[in-house]
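Tokens help. Our protein:
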Amino acid sequence: MSAPSASGSEQETRPHEGEQPGRGERAPRPSRTERDELARAALGPLAEGEWPGALLIAIAVAAVLAVAVVVSLATVHDLHARGGSLAGGAFLAAVLAGLAAGMYRRRYWAVLGFQALLAFQIIVGSLALVVASTWLAAGVCVVSVGLAGWLFWKLVRVLGRIAVGGLR
């Protein structure tokens, strides 16, 4: 509601803390810090033995990719001619296995690292879509970006819950 001041201009009156706004007035919007605190309070830490679906999917993806890299290292002959190396493949398999083990133990760094790999995959898939020469290639890129984006988004909440559990 507006009330004329001594100078005749109108000024906005706000309800005091704890009061409800009058009819037709909006409640003041909480500050960013207050909204962050409300969001953190709404997040509960992961309970002992709780495994959110997104975390299980991320663990499975990392483990399957680590095994696939090891199998391809063992079965593909002449990696150098195909643009690969034994040391690079072993490093990639070790990183993926380490991330899978860390996510299984619900470690913040592991989920964050896996999200970094997902973000890289989203960028590479998007760039590959630009140069895709067939409908099949374009479809694979779109599905890859979509699935990686979905998993990335679902892991954000899991990461928050892991962080809240570490703070308490």
User: Anything to note?
Assistant: The chain is about 65% helix and 5% strand. The chain has a mean pLDDT of 85. The first strand starts at residue 2 and ends at 4. The first helix runs from residue 32 to 42.
